[in-house]
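tl;dr need the bound structure. longer version: we got a ligand (zinc ion) that a collaborator sent over and nobodys looked at where it sits. i said id run it. heres the input, straight from their email, havent touched it
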Amino acid sequence: MNRLLTFLLAAVVALCPSGISASERDVRPFVVVIDPGHGGKDYGAIGKVTNEKTINLDVALRIRKMLSEYNGIEVVLTRSTDTFLSLQQRADIANAAQGNLFVSVHVNSVDRRSKNRLTVKGASVYTLGLHRSNANFEVAKRENSVMELEPDFSTTYQGFDPNSTESYIIFELSQNKHLTQSINFAQMAQGELVKTAGRADRGVLQAGFWVLLASAMPAALVELDFICNPTSEQFLHSVKGKEKMARALTDAIVKYAEAHPGTMPVSKNMVVDEASEPFDMEESEPEDAAAPEQKSAATKGAVTYRVQIMACDRRLSDNSPEFKGLKNVDSYRQGGFYKYTVGGDFPTEDAAERYACKSVRGKFPKAFIIKWRDGQRID
Ligand SMILES: [Zn+2]
């Protein structure tokens, strides 16, 4: 092989994630798995104007969007559309993602015969354990009973019967090594649901939820409020209500992630947050200059600048841990490699350089600036 080509290939491969030192690899983003309960043929609890699966998904998608404003946190959703997933599939997704935290989002309800059906209200956050009251048992039974919608559920769940009291003995016997951390998060989430979303406080509780048992990480199941109470349902159905509940859970997740050792530090992502300025105003370009988030705003023929962080022979997903929490990742192909840039297009080399210094080189010391025109790199 041509010596120059060999050299170039070696240089490119050196930038590849496999070349990252072990210590850098150990520090990865905090991975939160959000599990919008129910979906598809399983509606969950039904209200007068809406249903549980729709609220759960809507709130989960809002949380994902809110968390995208933070570096150092990666979000995995068990479902992002209206599809049916078994409880085991949800746990499998969480375990495959090696999550640091599992948050299952649900909406509560009580039986049609309950006298307090129209007045019962409030949020509660559950961790795994054996129920201490009948009411908690009823919630676990209802949430676990979705396994009956699976054709072969008694094999999958090893004979577990969601409606039999005896089955729940496994929750007493199972060791729960994540309990302290789970309760820690549950308290944060419950606190925020009361403070930020204004929900009545039903407290942090324990019950036997299969999905929590099967997820090998700190885990909590959130019951946002009661859909059978018309006032609560109105809140659960409103955009304002969903936004507040998502904000509450987002703040709790951030707080928990910030206190979590062994993962990357969490910081507010100035690139995505429209309210904050990307640079010091004094140093910044004129107002009409492309801010980092306006990544495809470049007009035809115009030259822009990008910050390249790595090249690799594999295609990586946008939220791959290899990007170390940096957002706004673009890629292009050149010479058989995928090359990755962050932060979008910058109007001048200086602006790109400032961004690289301030936000990128701490994580990718070898990041460099490339020239870009009409969708491709120019040199
Ligand atoms: Zn549910």
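gonna send this back to them w/ a short note. The chain has two domains: 3-10+276-378, 29-258.
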